[in-house]
Amino acid sequence: MCEVGPRPPFLDGGGGGGGGGETPPSSALSPPGLQGGFGAGEKGREMGEQPIFTTRAHVFQIDPTTKKNWVPASKQAVTVSYFYDSTRNSYRIISVDGAKVIINSTITPNMTFTKTSQKFGQWADSRANTVFGLGFSSEQQLTKFAEKFQEVKEAARLARERSQEKIETSSNHSQESGRETPCSTRASSINGTDDEKASHGGPSDAQLKTENDRLKLALAQSSSNVKKWEIELQALRESNARLTSALQESAASIEHWKKQFSVCKEENDQLRSKIEELEEQCDEINKERERNVQLSRRLQELETELQDKDLELEDLRKQGEIIPQLVTECETVSQKLQAAEKRNKDLEEKVRALKTEVEDSKHRQNHLKTELQTFLDVLDGKIDELHDFRQGLSKLGVDN
Predict the structure, then answer these.
(1) Residue 163, Cβ neighbours under 10 Å: how many?
(2) What count of Cα atoms within 13 Å lies in the side-chain half-sphere of residue 301?
(3) Phi and psi at residue 69, in whole multiples of 5°?
(4) CB 228 within 8 A of CB 87
(5) pTM
(6) In this predicted model, what pLDDT tens digit does every residue of 304-343 receive, in sequence order?
(7) Reduced 3-state DSSP string for 217-248
(8) Phi then psi dihedrals of residue 305, to 5 deg
(9) In the chain, at which residue ranges do the beta strands (DSSP E only) sit?
């Protein structure tokens, strides 16, 4: 079975809407609505109807007018349960939202559960003349529900086959008894003597009695089945009446929900624009914070520099108090320096004079050295002469 209508917008990507994400255990109890004001559920429990699988999902029904759009049957995720009736050997899917029955679908072998997306599935119920859709919060929940649907569908098929076999067996027995009764009558009419009637009447009466007992038992079973089917029919009528009224209520509330949806969409657009403005403001605030941080750092640096400048200024003030003394000392030192400069000039003149005298003395010394050398040379000549003269005298003395 193909998808008969578009999936609800919030089930395409996130699955299950905003409310129903929890997965109850498969052995959960029956839905709350079946414990109070749901007549069909009370009758079902009295006849042995018990839950065999329970989950949570968003419930939808196909729009009865367009047969294309989905209409939400529940405002939020509700409990959806498989019920088994042991007395009637039947299976049903039941879901209740508060006191309102939103699903009462008897499963037949002809039904098919189709996965139309990762978190959405649907099946058609010809008795209820509608198509049910379920939106789950996860793909795993959808897979479990689909597998359970297939199991229940197979069990319903087997139950139908068994019931058909029983009906065929009972009809065969009734046909055989109908065929045997005329034969015995013909036998009794053919055999005209009382002995022959007695001899043939014994077995046929026993067989008739057995067949009559079987027919009585079949009649009792059929009467009990009729009562059960009447109860089931009444329950279905009541359920259909409730479903019809619920369908009418849902159809009446569609326009209201559409208006609310449009209002919510406008509010959503306004909120988005507001969020964008706030994000821009937040960006500006973050930039201002960064600027404030930088300014705070610069301010601390300037405060540190100001403290350093204050210390320098204090040192300068202290030094300023010493300046007059330094000026006085500078004047004294200047006077001393001038006196020293005068003495230095005098000394320089004396040095020049001494240099001149040294030069003169050097010249005189050189001249004296020259004269002394000349004198020494002359003296050496005179000494040589005297030596020669002495040797001459010595020779003279030796000779004498």
Answers:
(1) 13
(2) 6
(3) -95, 150
(4) yes
(5) 0.36
(6) 999 999 999 988 888 888 888 888 888 899 899 899 999 8
(7) HHHHHHHHHHHHHHHHHHHHHHHHHHHHHHHH
(8) -60, -40
(9) 49-62, 70-72, 78-85, 90-97, 100-106, 114-115, 120-125, 130-135
CA gap 342, 352 in Å, rounded: 15
Q: In 3-state terms, what secondary structure has residue 166?
A: helix
Residue positions counted in the chain: 400
pLDDT band at 21 (very low <50, low <70, confident <90, very high): very low
Rounded to 5°, angle at Cα 73 from 67 and 79: 130
Contact present, 30 and 40 (Cβ < 8 Å)? no
Residue 337, SS3?
helix
Distance in angstroms (rounded) separating the CA atoms of residues 269 and 276: 11
**Chain Cα centroid distance, residue 330:** 84
Per-residue burial over 387-396, b if 16 or more Cβ lie within 10 Å, else e, is eeeeeeeeee
Hey, is 104 helix, strand or coil? strand
